[in-house]
Amino acid sequence: MRTTCSMECRGKLEPLLRANAALRVLAPGRSRQSSGNRRGIHFAPGPASSEDDEQERAPPPRRWYRAAYARLLRHAGSLRGIGLAGGPPRHAATGSLITYPYAAALAAHFDALAREFVSAAAVASRHPPLKLKETSLSSLTRVCDVLGVSAQRRKIVRLTVCPQVTQHHIWRGALEEVLGDLKTDMASLERPSPATQMAEQIASACIRFLSDTADAATSSTPSWMRPTPFKKPAGAPPPAKTWQEVLDMFTDVAKSLETDPRLAGHAQKIEAMKEGLYQIRDIVIERDISFKEARRQDCLVQRKLSKSLGHSSRCLYTLLLFYLYGTVRDIEVHVGICISGKGSRNVTVHAAKFLTDGDELAVRSGVKQLSRALGVFRFVWEAANTDCDATNDNGKDVTVKKKNGEDAKGVLELQGHLWGFGVEEKAVTYRGHVFHVHQIQLP
Prior knowledge:
alpha+beta; 2 domains; 6-stranded mixed β-sheet; two-stranded antiparallel sheet
């Protein structure tokens, strides 16, 4: 049955993509650069430079709206049951990875066309257009680019985040989550290659290693090096282990994943966490040390990680995601910003998702995904506008002083938007944020 469905979807994809090329021809004023750089958008601080271009851009003809709307309806029918919220397409019910290349291409096509249609429909209805740009929130630098955080304040963000996310239980939990997500998606592959099967075995061995470093007594006990237990186990003590073993296993997993493009996202996460493992690989995990020595070593490890993980570090951002939400998946979202106020200090952020299903389950899933994105924006904004003392790379306390004439922090307004077919238009409040649900309809 799955093979039959695969053949049908594969047959549908080619004419759909050819029709999409025709739709792009009908939309005037579209440059090659804008269609080729949808991912990895860099947000320059301050007002958007493309605002004048959007105003001068001629609206599409009426026939473009009808053709695009019909195309979106067919896409939504083909993708029913598939969630687009965050990274590659996944089954909306189970969350497992959709590994067929044509399904991923169809989902990306729907996402991009929906963004174009919603933006154009707002102009045609004489509503303020949302200038949405697709980006992947994969580092603190990306988040700060959206918020327009200055270079001076970005350092404060890093110095505020590092002491919170470099604790042992956060570090170990993030590593286990990266490997756990990898194993889950590898299990959903129909024909795993020998290299993929080898990666799964190495990931299982690495998870067992990490579980051995868990706190044996209390959660406050540092576990980079474990203190001697009150009751020593009978027999000879186990051999000392080092974090070099974890680094070696992550390196082997990364090599095994190179041959399978379906797991490219996981390979990027493995490479990101290797950045931190290189900094702590010489640390020995042993029991025969005192509690005081273990606490001292714990502080030294945290200080080293805080110094080595830079602002653009994907490893640092992964630790932050696990610290905030217990997940490590990067957040892919459409973002629009509006900067106002004296000195352009007030920022309004609109985060958007497009749904292929209009049922309540899909809406709730989209709200949760958007809530994570808005939560990251709020966390980074508050860290950037904190005037309390922080700790520099050398472990010394520093005080951040405002420049002459610098006003108090501005106002950050966060809104979430969900668009879909057959949804009930409403406003939902979730964890302190307002989410607007809209229908995709002809203007």
